[in-house]
Amino acid sequence: MILGIGIDIIEVARIASSYEKFGERFVNRILYADEIAYCLSHKNPAPFLAVRFSAKEAISKAFGTGICAQLGWQDMEIRRKESGEPFVVLHGKGKKLFQSRRAKRLLVSLSHTANYAAATAVLER
After folding, report:
1. Domain containing residue 55
2. Catalytic residues
């Protein structure tokens, strides 16, 4: 049973601008150290940063909360399987929210180009 679906799209230039302006302060606010390392390992990290931002927005929409006191940036982490498939690890309030909804699975799909990043999340029971 689907509990919630979320989708988000963002212009990569918006995230690139925030990263250029605020640097580490920006990425440390929205990403975990492993997420940052992965994104910065690419010649152009902006699309990778943007798609993770978009994924966390999509996840918050699937929960029906948005990014707020109930679910913050650091309550979600986007990881990759060896195959490249993305998956979500919930921390803190994200884990509690998942349990309170009696959810069983949280799926995420990511896509990006040089100009746009998009993500979809599905919360299932």
Report:
1. 2-124
2. 61, 112
